[in-house]
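Aim 2 progress update. The chain analyzed this quarter is reproduced below.
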Amino acid sequence: MRSYRWAVLTVAIYTTMVTLAGPCPAAKKIHVIVKTVLASGGQTFIDPELSDLAHELQSLFRYSSYRLLGKERLALNLKEQGMVVLPGKRVLKITPTGIHDKRVELELVILKKKKRIFETVIQLLNHGRLVVGGPQYKKGALLFDISSSF
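Predicted structure tokens:
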């Protein structure tokens, strides 16, 4: 009888602890979308796939042409690194480092030939987005429209 009470008490304590702890944030997937954009001067052109971003891009950057080069979707756990292959033999590494106050913190690192050429940390609200200016490419610059949901 004593072992039965001990087993019931152990299950009750465990159930209470799990309920109070709530869902484990480490198990929550963080969905990240990265649009790689080539911004350049010259002839005015807005890629039709960037129409939702056109006003923001034109108000933030002094380019006349915005061309979508790629779009990648990642589903990452906290501390898990995702990679996006970029033009010019570059790689963008994205690592969610934490979730605080309804914001996800993402570490962004761009590598070229295994050398870090760009590094920053951003925070995004759930379903938020941010355009980040990147390195020069061809006769313009790479921009990254990064959005996340969790």
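Residues 24-149 form one domain. Residues 2-21 form the longest helix (20 residues). These observations will guide the mutagenesis experiments scheduled for the next reporting period.
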